[in-house]
């Protein structure tokens, strides 16, 4: 039984027989996309973990792409009806859009078991453990026999628009050069499964010999890494033409470590 952002008003905090609960089926997986409090934020979905697997994409409260200005959202690619509905309940409706995308991407939407979304943004819950990570959506039940604890909270990020799945990589860059400069570093990943766009991994003071770590939520499952593109920019004309390179770049896949 899959709960697509089960309702909060009049249901949250009620006994199990009133609302969706893990006792309702042999396997209950839940996608929480609109779990901000009803007042003052008008969240339609409940926040407590109630299934065998509870997924909180993007933290479960505010979905990327739902903060667009009302006009651009109402005159949506999918038509005015879809856009108007999204404007009113965009976060809530993301749950079924993620679910339908999950059917097309069986390897997508990996959920990382974590204490909170804040911890997920650090290195504390990366990569997946040896038994793997469950996939949010249609293929969540592949994980059925692997659940060891009462409630499993899972976190992941998604794209702003369809197609929604993203694949998480940890990128560690050690810089080389003569002296520190200010600016930013972008990295693009190339692999057997496809290539990513440029993702910013460092911004601020770039210090040679220092090592920087960042996460990339890539729009493609790159498979085996074949190449990494490194670019840096300091956004200003500098007559001394400082040079900066990468001594090493390490890419770690969240899926298999």
TrEMBL record:
Keywords: Cell projection, Cytoplasmic vesicle, Disulfide bond, Hydrolase, Lipid degradation, Lipid metabolism, Secreted. It comes from the Eukaryota. Pathway: Glycolipid metabolism; Glycerolipid metabolism; triacylglycerol degradation. PROSITE patterns: PLAT (PS50095). It catalyses: 1,2-didodecanoyl-3-O-[alpha-D-galactosyl-(1->6)-beta-D-galactosyl]-sn-glycerol + H2O = dodecanoyl-3-O-[alpha-D-galactosyl-(1->6)-beta-D-galactosyl]-sn-glycerol + dodecanoate + H(+); 1,2,3-trioctanoylglycerol + H2O = dioctanoylglycerol + octanoate + H(+); 1-beta-D-galactosyl-2,3-didodecanoyl-sn-glycerol + H2O = 1-beta-D-galactosyl-dodecanoyl-sn-glycerol + dodecanoate + H(+); a 1,2-diacyl-3-O-(beta-D-galactosyl)-sn-glycerol + 2 H2O = 3-beta-D-galactosyl-sn-glycerol + 2 a fatty acid + 2 H(+). InterPro entries: AB_hydrolase_fold (IPR029058), Lipase (IPR013818), PLAT/LH2_dom (IPR001024), PLAT/LH2_dom_sf (IPR036392), TAG_lipase (IPR000734). Residues 167-257 form the PLAT domain. GO terms for molecular function: galactolipase activity; lipoprotein lipase activity. SUPFAM superfamilies: alpha/beta-Hydrolases, Lipase/lipooxygenase domain (PLAT/LH2 domain). It is found in: Cell projection, Neuron projection; Secreted; Zymogen granule membrane. Pfam families: Lipase, PLAT. It is an enzyme of class 3 (hydrolase). The keyword Protease does not apply. Its EC number is 3.1.1.26. The keyword Protein transport does not apply. It is a peripheral membrane protein. One of its GO terms (biological process) is lipid catabolic process. Its main location: other. One of its GO terms (cellular component) is neuron projection. Belongs to the AB hydrolase superfamily. Lipase family. This is Pancreatic lipase-related protein 2. It comes from Glareola pratincola.
